[in-house]
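2024-03-11 09:14:02 DEBUG pipeline.ingest accepted 1 chain
2024-03-11 09:14:02 DEBUG pipeline.ingest length=708
2024-03-11 09:14:03 DEBUG pipeline.predict start
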Amino acid sequence: MKQLVFILFQFLIISTSAQVEISGIVISKSNEPLHGVNLFIDNSYDGCTTDSMGSFSFITNLNGAHLLKVSYIGYKSKTINLNLDATIQPIQINLEEEISELDEVVINAGTFEASDKKKSVIMNPIDIATTPGANGDIYGTFGTMPGSHKVGEEGRLFVRGGESYETKTFMDGMLVNTPYYSKTPDLPTRGRFSPLLFNGAVFSTGGYSAEYGQALSSIVALNTTALAPEDISSISVLSVGVLGSHAKRWENTSLALTGEFLHTGLTNKLFKQNIDWLKDPIVYGSTFMFRHKTGESGMIKSFGSFNYNTSSLQHNNFQESILQDLKIDNANGYFNTTFNDMLNEKWMIKTGVAVNIDSDKINISSDIIQTVRKNGQVKASLTNFMTDKIQTKMGADFVVNDYRQEIIMDGNFLLPFTNNQLSAFVETEIKIAKQFALRFGGRAEHSSLLQKTTFTPRLSSALKTSKYSQISLAFGNFYQNPEDDYLKYSPVLSPEQSTHSILTFQYKKNTRTFRIEAYNKKYSNLIKFKDEYSFEANNFTNEGTGHSNGIDFFWRDQKSFDESDYWISYSWNDSRRNYRDFPTEAIPHYVSKHNLSVVYKKFFTGISTFGAVTYSFASGRPYFNPNNPGFMSDKTKPYNDLSLSLTHLTYLFNTQTVIHLIVNNVLGFNNIYGYNYSNTPNNMGFYEAQAITPPSKRMAVILISFQI
């Protein structure tokens, strides 16, 4: 929720002072009206889209000379000079088809992307900011996309039968080791970064490029914005805190700063909590983004963030039948710098360095667990454009992971390790014809801690079946080192492994998209316990196995209803594992066989209000009931959620203002995520249970944000 205000200013504010009307029609070269064309005044928030007859009309409060930007999928963009001090007559705009974007095949199996024009444009920053139920969280919004599972007590991405740690996050190609805030047992977390920081976000559900490694299931690749368009400042007052931002633009350089203070005390009092908070959650945070253009094609980007969060509660340890005071303090810093440039017409270079430090301190009554993770990465890649049909990318990166955990619990225990990961990759994409493309390559990785070297081949292809449709295939092997919680005890384990096979059909015409994707994942070398309660090094093995099969559907329509946009995603998944302490192969607790999301958004021009609603459904998830003989044979009831948001754009105190209201679980569904069971039976030999539920049945937040 805390990020929404920045996005709303970036995309939605409409002025209400002196007004000039801009209207006209957009047609093709053959004089056919074009529906859904985007028009906006450069460096402003004023614009609209054309209706079914190609007509457009919008009001602006600007004056003087400005540029009108016109863009439409499959057509060349256009720029028109405007003099807003004079009366603007109706404009006729002719757009020319961009043959390469309409006809050329593009490899996109497993990928939902938010920025690349040559791929299917599925999500963008405003989608992320205004999707109800996601609360402005990147990962929450991707949770409405096909392939993801609803795991409400976690708040992280679970993709196609994979656990949350199997999804890795990259920012401008650089690894983000701790993308989520620290987590309290049975309570959801969220991502650390605002969607405003990025002009694109790729959610790859599998079969991704050889450039990325150490992810068994999926990746989220975040691409930060370039130069800030203009000087701008804002301040926001929320029911959960205060936010502020300022951006300064020079000719070839920009600097943007943000700060936040969040306190959930008021919200926790207004909405009854099933959590006994001793100290309401508090967050302090700041970010900076420095951009400098070094030439016609060169760009230096520096990004930094720091946040600190703290909270304490009385935790009901139902398994042990005791109440414990639980306090969490987390400090996190992330910094990266990247440089991109064209060396000449045939070669492009990308380099980067990133540092991520995370300190997590947990006090459980008198016990203390202090965990410090230090992660550093250096990366370089070269792309060769041999011809306009052949492109080869190659590179290498070096990642240092330093882990140190100190446990004060009936004595002092120190669990440190360091792992240096050296990787190299090469990948070539060939467009054999406008109708067929092939991408092949591989990635090699070596772990100094595990003393293991792996090689992972990747192969993707796409065939154009018509002007608006194509079929894509993807296959690859993927490795990931075991989690830190296992490596700290047993550094002689091997990397876990998965194999992806993906078949995709996609039809996209104008602003309608239909997509169906079938996949098969096979797991091997998963962590398996010999004894559930032993922490000896030889207790952990790589004998675990698993598989995950499924079908994903996606439909998005931005054309049928005026000023509206909606999408429907559905996923069916069959996933089973025999790993960790499982006595036999079973469906993991986080897997729902059926997941459905329906998102509808509409802008009401007359009242300058944006409304959106999200309905989410997930079938029951399995859990282990010790009172029943079957392992993981019980299931929760289905998950249901209906959330909405309203955004009103206006002027208060002669200042551009956004008033935003979001309500989660409007109908008050009693969702249950699973059960905790007592470790010992009662006098009747029955193991008593405690339901795992959301911290409150419903939640509402309001904010008022001013542009200074």
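2024-03-11 09:14:41 DEBUG pipeline.report The two ends are 21 Å apart (CA to CA).
2024-03-11 09:14:41 DEBUG pipeline.predict end
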